[in-house]
């Protein structure tokens, strides 16, 4: 009994440590993103005033949206990272998905406005100037963006934060965007001004695609979509490594922010004692928390004689795949 209590305390301590680690790195990501986003915005604003370029204006508009979204993200993350309370028993993680959905809406609106302007400028003669200055500023912005993207990729691997992932989508697209702007300014220096407008349209297309992907993932979280099939198979295979476990039934999963929620039934042999069954369930919980750092696990021990497996109403996911 003492060993079981110690195992339970170890589980709680591990979970608390992982939660603290998640909060620490997500907050650091927020501070870094705000600092770099503001710097890039000021640099691109100076380039817009100097060049009068459609592609630079499109890039500046995207940077403005990035800064706005980063500020909102930072505020929402402070709420999403709050622990569960009496009114929110499963935590506040879905706030990240709500913010991601709003980001998708912002991106879509900005892209549509830029498309309208880019098409209208095909029929106008606009003077693009100070091209070397514009290219230099854009290159500097690209280097700052690359630094941020590398930091965010590392933080996502460590935390799996949807909000940081949403930011990464923006800034990863900014790398391509900055290169396209440099190309557009080069062609503008050769009096091929239509390339500048074409690049602006390409940037808008990428923004629309990013908005679609972001909204899709946010809705998966908000609508409690099941984890991918390969993840469900991984869960089942991990649990079946215990010889006393005959099958996994009624496996249900969902995700909210960093938290993975898993509930299932373990089919066990009829002759196991309550103490032995409890030990098997504890071990199963530890296995799942090893797979998913922020897992909330509910497991019910089901005797074989009462299970769906005995009555042939289910197959294991492994059998279905093979």
TrEMBL record:
Residues 33-223 form the Cation efflux protein transmembrane domain. GO terms for cellular component: plasma membrane. Residues 227-304 form the Cation efflux protein cytoplasmic domain. InterPro entries: Cation_efflux, Cation_efflux_CTD, Cation_efflux_CTD_sf, Cation_efflux_TM, Cation_efflux_TMD_sf, CDF_Transporter. It is a multi-pass membrane protein. The keyword Transport applies. It comes from the Bacteria. It is found in: Membrane. The chain crosses the membrane at residues 63-81, 93-115, 135-156, 168-188, 194-212. One of its GO terms (biological process) is intracellular zinc ion homeostasis. This is Cation diffusion facilitator family transporter. It comes from Rheinheimera tangshanensis. The lineage of its organism: Bacteria, Pseudomonadati, Pseudomonadota, Gammaproteobacteria, Chromatiales.
